[in-house]
Amino acid sequence: MKKVKFMCTAFRDGFQSVYGARVLTKDFMPAVAAAKEAGITWFEAGGGARFQSLYFYCNEDAFDMMDEFRKVAGPDADLQTLARGTNVVGLESQSSDVIKLHAQMFKKHGMTTIRNFDALNDVNNLIYSGQCIVDAGLKHQVCVSMMALPPGCEGAHTPDFYEDRLKKIIDSGLPFDSVCFKDASGTSVPKVVYETIKRARKILPSETLIDFHTHETAGASIACYLAALDAGADAIDLSMAPCSGGTCQPDIVTMWHALRGSEYSLDIDIEKVLKAEEVFKDCMKDYFLPPEACAVEPTIPWNPMPGGALTANTQMLRDNGIMDKYVEISRAMGDAVRKGGFGTSVTPVSQFYFQQAFNNVMFGEWKKIADGYGKMVLGYFGKTPVEPDPEVVKLASEQLGLPPTTKTPLEINDADPKKGLGPARKRLEEAKLPISDENLFISAACGDKGIDFLLGKAKVSVRYNEAPKPAVEAPKASVGEYTVMVEGRPFEVAIKDGVAVVNGREFKTDIKAGFDKSAPAAAPVAPASKTAVKAPMPGVVRKILVAQGAEVKEKQALIIIEAMKMEVEITAPASGKVASIDVQVGQQIAGDAKVATIG
Description:
Blueprint: E1 2-3, E2 5-8, H1 10-19, H2 25-37, E3 42-47, H3 49-56, H4 62-73, E4 78-83, H5 96-108, E5 113-116, H6 124-135, E6 139-146, H7 159-171, E7 178-183, H8 190-203, E8 209-213, H9 221-231, E9 235-238, H10 252-258, E10 264-265, H11 270-283, H12 307-319, H13 326-339, H14 349-363, H15 371-378, H16 390-400, H17 409-414, H18 421-430, H19 437-454, E11 480-486, E12 489-496, E13 499-502, E14 505-508, E15 531-534, E16 539-544, E17 551-552, E18 557-563, E19 566-571, E20 576-581, E21 588-589, E22 594-598
Helix pairs in contact: 1-12, 2-4, 2-11, 5-6, 5-19, 7-8, 8-9, 13-14, 14-15, 15-16, 18-19
């Protein structure tokens, strides 16, 4: 009987695919200990979104998390992380010095292996990053990224295409220890998986480990895993409840059951695994489990959203009060894929697809090219598998003010004075922060948010289950209670005689409870000759670029908000003087909220 190796993805991909990667270290370490006790020795322990998210949302240091993971998992565990080629652990591609430091820091903090992929399957993006991984003393698992194209598309993502990518990796001389065929959207079909891995088995040396990775999102994961094993794969990725099935990898228990009576075995004590899952469920009981994370989505092949991006995006839509737009945005994603050059729908390209679909729904089709999507079709992240739609390329060039390029991302980034460890060091010096390799990498990979964390300004933004709301007694006759919406923000107001309580704070007032219908109506106020500046979409205020009293011109950027991992400029609708700035940095605002006035 053939023993199938597996990596437990619950504590990285599982967290990203269910909780938007927002999980505190102290909450899940008991589950890591239980998984170790169950005999699991190969874990995905970080990287991907589980790097930036700790600084952005958990107010934690990812390096501290990795140290703790190593301590709990023990010295012999294979701890693997995920890297995105030249992007390493961010959405933006990096310069050579940052890529090198990434590998060195992950080695220093207890990692064993780095899985390295490029969403465009551009081998040029894997060569230097892979060499850095090997030079740092880590094992390098190189990837070919997979997906199924939406129905009606052709030109890439076939066995021929994947075989060609693998041959290019081999011909490049890139050193690697194992190969992973990675399908983040779970859309590949069993026949393609079987033929691809069968060909890879013939091309690669017999001792090379072949791993296959997929998600249950489209409902075909078990069939694809069986096809991969039949074709010669040595290892697969599995997860643990509550981070299994749906948008995640299949559960260890599910796969164990699917292999019963076959020639394959997971070689585990299933009863111990079941006990470990109970520990894990208890660890996560207070976290909000989005319903879409638990479901198979039959339409995913038409709009291939990776599990790790699907719930992160739906949660951001919930945060911004526009979850009702999800179905429309999801449908629009298919068009973004068709016209974008067929990069694999995995971070960061999957986010580019979603951001463009979001813009197409919120602003009108192709009226606003998302920065990442535009740079991708223009070539700034590498070469796409096929040529993007020429009209979209033209729009991207016009709107972003960038010409198409054939330079590699490394060439571009190494020549960019805003990229690299130099600017990262300058940010630390300006903030009077210690200069260490860890801080340099945090500054380079996380930008201003990383600096905020190091300064102690970061906040915890973890999504927990809502506490039951206490019963509210009917207001007494002498008290008026109201919910008042001001610029899209709710304020709970209770008015008593002589006192107004607003969101728990008391203010003296001449207003009496109730309304005197006999009182004369207030005289109408003549409208001022001012123009309101409104937010085009919900988001969080990140930067205020002008001060009250400043003279501005029409279409000048006034405020930058962050929405769906994009920075969106709010511009002046007219020329004039800024009469007021009505928001603060860090404030969550609703769509169409007034953020300033020009008079």
